[in-house]
Specification:
The complex is a heterodimer.
Chain A lengths: L3 E4 L2 E4 L5 E7 L8 E6 L6 E5 L3 E2 L7 E6 L2 E6 L9 E6 L7 E2 L3 E5 L1
Parallel strand pairs in A: 2-11
Antiparallel strand pairs in A: 1-3, 3-8, 4-5, 4-9, 5-6, 7-8, 9-10, 9-11
Chain B lengths: L2 E5 L2 E3 L5 E8 L8 E6 L5 E7 L6 E3 L7 E6 L4 E6 L8 E7 L11 E2 L3 E5 L2
Parallel strand pairs in B: 2-11
Antiparallel strand pairs in B: 1-3, 3-8, 4-5, 4-9, 5-6, 7-8, 9-10, 9-11
């Protein structure tokens, strides 16, 4: 089973700053089958990125994903107030599907 | 508009059973593979079960294998999760989730609002 490790656990930033979130896999993720989700309190997760770098429908272009193999990054170019949330990565390149990382909380500094 | 609406959660004693349902609308349910994902209070996301469009392929996470059973009724656009021998650690919000058509392992585009299962004496 592929284990995903996200870092840092918490990121304290101010609106307008750049956020860089890391997701490292214990083994190579096939075809860069990696997704990123945003979750706010009391709500279901929201898909941001799939295929490591493809933005989901309706996601602002300040969100970008990159990486391959075992190292992946989610970047938020300039944080808006609504971006403070918890972010999860997920790999879907191996069976059974859907291993998630433990999450990174982006909080207001 | 795609909608997934879970129901059936509640308080149950350890060792008890519960059946969750997910009502789907806004898409051709029989064309899509479906999943259950859970989230314990204050914790991260955990995928727990997958069922293919025809019910021909089913997967479970090790944490629920042998205790939970996933099923679907394509005629009624519904997904189910039968949960038996429940444990304290099964306490979580349970989400049904759908990916794109044709992928057995995928990202999840659509999520329900979740239903809370609490296992406690």
């Amino acid at each position: 089973e592929i284990v995903l490790t996200q870092s840092p656990g918490t990121l304290s930033l101010s609106p307008g700053e750049r956020a860089t979130l890391s997701c490292r896999a214990s083994q190579s993720v096939s075809y860069s089958y990696l997704a990123w989700y945003q979750q706010k309190p009391g709500l279901a997760p929201r898909l941001l990125i799939y295929g490591a770098s493809r933005r989901a429908t309706g996601i602002p272009d300040r969100f970008s994903g990159s990486g391959s193999g075992t190292d992946f990054t989610l970047t938020i170019s300039r944080l808006e107030p609504e971006d403070f949330a918890v972010y999860y990565c997920q790999q879907y390149g191996s069976s059974p599907p859907g291993t998630f990382g433990q999450g990174t909380k982006v909080e207001i500094k | 508009e795609v909608q997934l609406v879970e129901s059936g959660g509640g308080l149950v004693q350890p060792g008890g059973s519960l059946r969750l349902s997910c009502a789907a609308s806004g898409f051709i349910f029989s064309n899509y593979n479906m999943n259950w994902v859970r989230q314990a209070p204050g914790k991260g996301l955990e995928w727990i079960s997958y069922i293919s469009d025809t019910s021909g392929t089913i997967y479970y996470a090790d944490s629920v294998k042998g205790r939970f059973t996933i099923s679907r009724d394509n005629a009624n656009n519904s997904l189910y999760l039968q949960m038996n021998s429940l444990r304290d650690e099964d306490t979580a919000i349970y989400y049904c989730a759908r990916g794109p058509r044709g992928y057995s392992s995928s990202w999840y585009v659509y999520w329900g609002q979740g239903t809370l299962v609490t296992v406690s004496s």
